[in-house]
Target: O-antigen ligase family protein
Amino acid sequence: MLLRLTVLTALVLPANMVLEPLGASGYVAMIVALVLFGVWAASALWNGHDAIGCRHPARIGLTLFWLTTILSYLRMTGADTTARASADRWLLGLLAVTAIVCVTAETVTSTDRALVLVRTVIVGATVTSAVALWQFVFRVDPLDVVRSVMVGMVDNGGQTTFQQRGTLTRVAGNTFTPIELGVVTSMVLPLAVWRALVDRSAGRVARWLPCVLVTVACVLTVSRSAVLGLVVATAITVPFLPRHARRWAAIVVPTCVVGVFVAVPGLIATLASSIGADPSTDPSLATRVNNYPRVQAMIADSPWFGIGPATYLPDNALDLLDNQYLHSAVETGVPGALALVAVLVLPIVAAGTVACWARDPELRLLAAAVAAGCAVAAVSSAVFDSLSFPVFRIVWPVLVGLSGSVWLIARRTAPTRCGPPDRGPVRPAHTTPTEE
Model:
């Protein structure tokens, strides 16, 4: 219940509203996630569950990530009060990520339980997608009403609901920025498709409307990262769809793309100019490219431990690093960047392995959807500092935990599922069943 509440509050409530004493870590979803960690840890100490025995590949990456973070934290030197506070908040966030990953992997023990959790994810994604559509059409943020009734919480700042790109206004929904919304929705879309195909408790409209809304919201962010995420998600998910679904996808996907571009005048031109922009003239691309020499120098100054987790706090917005891999290399050193690669890639490998060899079609497609969502997170982290964004930090661990779930389900239900399918003994051609 706490896990589902964490996901729902992250996707439904505005993340910029925080409890002032807690600062940036005081948004509702983070508070619930920290309570979840407390309950999970207490249960493990009192032998309520076997936290050590629930092994899956994603835990290797998470362990390495913790190790490099702690080493960097302990080796921090000369950090001021602000940097120390930021590093402490980073550790709190990592506790929340750990709780979500571990609880998801341990409690989602079947595709039926996965469906319950995925339904919650899709409900939250549908709400934030509907909010984004409202923002895009009416240029008004309905979340202002929600913020006004969140008594005791203050605006932490940093949220950019509306951004101009070309002739269009980009929207962020319930997330911090349009880029975060584009990445999160493209991560969630494969799960929405899986739910639409396997959930027999809902009607056709109730199952497929969230897929449409999530896709539309992703496109309305007018984000290169969103387009990249959609391409990655589609490329991984479609080959694992049932045959009839692949046929429908060949018809529906182009139709939806054309429909969105026709319904939103100027979208094609804006996206095309954004994707094909010259790095020397596009401010966003130019900032990323110009940061490379500075990042190289910072890494050379402290290659093993970095400057400390979450302590890179530039005063100039042009100095922001829109690349989580570079962020980790600067803050936790080269080992930290390698640990980040592990924690992002190992869930893809685990879920992809199950998708290739599992016999249960529902489990195969779920594993493919999880691998696709994790792949979107890994690729998108190269174009924006993903772990700095509150909604991503809640949704991504759910996918990582689900990678552990499908791995454990496959191992438990059939030991041979992580290898080539067992076709049974080969009967000699000259024998008959009675002769055997």
About this structure: The longest helix spans residues 324-357. The longest strand covers residues 162-165. Residues 2-417 form one domain. The chain is about 65% helix and 5% strand.
